[in-house]
Structures are given as structure tokens and as C-alpha cells.
Amino acid sequence: MSKRKNNSRQERDSTIHKVPFSQKAYYGISMAGFTFIGSMIDGAMLKLYTDFILFPALLFGIVQLLFSIINAINDPIIGYFSDRTTPVEGKGKRKIWLFRAIPLVAIGYFLMIFMNPDVPHMAIFIFLLIGLVLHDTGHAMNSINRGALMITVTDDDIERASFATISLVFQTILGIISYLLILLFVIGTTPLWVLYILFTIVGVIGMGVAFLGVSGIKEPSKLYYGQTFPKFKQLIKEVFKSKSFIFSSFFNL
To answer: Residues 113, 48: contact at Cβ < 8 Å?
Structure first.
């Protein structure tokens, strides 16, 4: 048994190396697609709902409050189940979750943007909350598993810093474009149908970029030989005892 563990550890150690630029670029591209859509949601949703959909700002704030509570607890749950996913040869382990994240983000995004002023406020409330939860769940699935994969493929701090820097460059470029589109088009004189077209284009491009990035990521199954993880009850207990978790949850409310 110990010999098998040693062999597994040695095989995993042999995969730790300098990562090619193309792989770092794919990581950055995958995140940039999500950022493109996320920036549009952060910058345009409040104005869309209050000025164009005529949804009361108070109800919008209540939706955000409920969403923040859910948002505070879904990350450790996603992390728990993704850590314990069995690697599949040719499909990886984290990549499975990265691909799962794309449709969740897309469904949540399109639920939020295709809203009509004639829809009753209670229906808007429900669809907005569902859209936010789906989008955030997909975004969390992507960021958690992408981050875990980045620190798994190499133990070199310089390489990890390079990952983060290149990723930030791609995210910044698409993030700036998204905010420029908001400044140019999400204004009071823009017809609602024009906004629908704009949001649709952003969603399609964002998901296409994310899919391209995830597809290019390489994840050998042997990266995970010999890994162990804490039990779910222990994990949840540690999360809720964490001062950083309590602090961040309080300020999300």
C-alpha cells in the first residue's frame, strides 16, 4: 500500500513543471468570458430594472439581500463536491465543472435580461432572484475550479503569479469593453429592444469566449493521484467558525 502511494506521489510530482504560455492564455480567456457577462450584470442590471423595466428599487434591494445570503454559503458546497469528483481520462476533473458552469451562467444571465415591463412585479422578483442565483452558482463553479486547477498544475510561485497576471489582462480587456458598452447604450434614450440586442450579443460572445478557453485547458488525470479531503461535516463546521467567512457574509448583507 505504501509503495503504491509513493509511486502515485512521484507520478504526480513529475507533472509539476513550467506551464506553456498557451495554457495560461486559455485560463485567462476562460475567465474573461465570464467577466464580460459579469461586468454587464454589475453595471447595467440596476438601471435596466429600475429605469426600463420600472421595477421598484426597494424590491430590487430585497432580491439582492436574499441573493447575498445564498451567495455566502454556496462556495464551500461547490468546493466540497468538486474536490471529490472522480477524474475522467480525457475530460479531467476540474474541466468537468468548468464546462458545467457555462450553461448555468448563460441561463441565469438570459433570465435576467429578457424581462418585460408588463410582467407582474412578483414574477419579476422571482425570475430575477433565480437568475442571480444561477449566474452566481455558475460563476462560483468556474472560479473555484479554475483556481484549484491553477495551483494544482504547478507548485512554482512565479508560474502561479504569471497565471494570475495573464488572466487579469484578458479579464481587464473584456471588462473595459463591457463597461464602455454600458456607458454608450444603457441610457434613458435607448429603446428597450436595442438593449435586448446588446445584452444578447454580450451573452453570446461571453459564453463563446468562455467555452473556447475551457476547451483549450489541459488537465491530466494523474494530477490528482493520492489526494485526500476533509469530510463534509468537518468542512462546514470549519467554514462557519472562520472569522473571514463571518466578516465577508456580514458585509454581503
So the answer is: yes
Which residues lie across from 88 on neighbouring strands? 92
Which pLDDT score is estimated for 233? Answer: 58
pTM: 0.79
CA nearest neighbour of 79 among 163, 26, 25, 149: 149
Question: What is d(CA 90, CA 80) in angstroms, rounded to the nearest whole number?
Answer: 22
13-16: Cβ within 8 A, 24+ apart: 15/153, 15/220, 15/222, 15/223, 16/153, 16/154, 16/155, 16/156
The domains located in the chain, with CATH, are 24-252 (1.20.1250.20)
With a CB cutoff of 8 Å and minimum separation 6, the contacts of 126 are none
**Do residues 182 and 202 make contact, with C-beta atoms less than 8 angstroms apart?**
no
Least confident stretch, 36-40, 136-140, 220-224? 220-224
Higher pLDDT, 164 or 236: 164
* DSSP 3-state of 176: helix
- Across the range 162-171, mean pLDDT stands at 90
Q: Three cell numbers at 125?
A: 422578483
